[in-house]
Amino acid sequence: MDVVSRLPSSAYYSTDRLEALYEYVEQKGEIYGAYQGDTLVAYTVIAFPGLSAGNLGREFGVPEVDLPKVASLEGSIVHESVRGQGLQRRFHAWREQRAREKDMLYLYATVHPDNVISRQNLESAGLTLQFSRTMYGGLPRHCYAKKLF
């Protein structure tokens, strides 16, 4: 997580969410990595949280019966040496494809308001800003959504 320590602000990536990332990968999500040779230079996570308490669908008013059809973009980290090469955009496309393959209805994401690049990438992937609020232990977040079907 050395890259996280060099982000412009520690508020861009919620470190208390790291435990959640492990849970997503082990139980209810997928992680993808990009390598340069043998070196991991970027990774991204998509979650399929089901009825768990952390399902972002509740923040967006999704009915309880539809919560199993929610996917969330849980985070991407790209090493400085490969930024600007479109990895985040490719990650968005891969994760949306996986959500569609699993017949998810909704795709959600949160991002720090000052993280301009991530906001632009979400918007170029067709997600739209729905609202802003404090989340993850007091961090400001813009909340994005995309209906898949």
Automatic annotation (TrEMBL):
Coiled-coil stretches noted in the UniProt entry, renumbered to this chain: none
Record SUPFAM superfamilies: Acyl-CoA N-acyltransferases (Nat) (SSF55729)
Taxonomic superkingdom: Bacteria
InterPro entries: Acyl_CoA_acyltransferase, GNAT_dom
Residues of the N-acetyltransferase domain: 1-149
TM region positions: none
Protein name listed in UniProt: GNAT family N-acetyltransferase
Organism of derivation: Paenibacillus anseongense
